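Protocol step 4 of 6: structure prediction from sequence.
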Amino acid sequence: MNYATAIDGWCGSIVGGCLKRWFDATAALAAILLFMPLFCLIALAIKFWDGGPVIYRHSRVGLKGAAFDCLKFRSMVINADEVLARHLATNSQAAAEWQKDRKLKRDPRITRLGASMRKTSIDELPQLLNILKGEMSFVGPRPIVIEEVPKYGPVIAHYLRARPGLTGPWQVGGRNDLDYATRVALDRGYVENWSFWGDLTIIAKTARVVVAPRGGY
């Protein structure tokens, strides 16, 4: 589904413009070349773990409402949807947590290998390809799923003005420990007050955050 028609003329200017896009494309290409050996090792580890697919694709809402496949190294069991449905059907507390944040602190879908990757955000490295393609940015609002769009109300306009980020103010501000309202407020502030130096600051802070387990699940 594409929301571009509905919000055409509502999004305003694209956050960061040509400078941000130039930095993203250049840095993403360099990072892909640098991390290629790590990519291969992770792919082999996932295949060795359960023989399933290496990459997980999930539809997200991008710039001007265009849907795209957000890429991650697979950190969940192969039948993740079935496992989640059974868990939510038999655990009312987990169902309420999922309804509120679309996250579970104790997620039965995640493998032990996947949990290790998530703590350091290594599972998100394939998003460098999304950045290179222009679907994402190194820094930006949190990528949101299509089903979440109605929850944002008028604030969705801020998300649709920017490419979703591999990292962002939510990543350096507490990751998944932040409640929904706080994540939205941080993303809105980022869009309203964007600067190139602000992006570089967030990238520098991210390097420190990913080595700590807090908020990574």
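Step 5 (inspection) to follow. The chain is about 50% helix and 10% strand.
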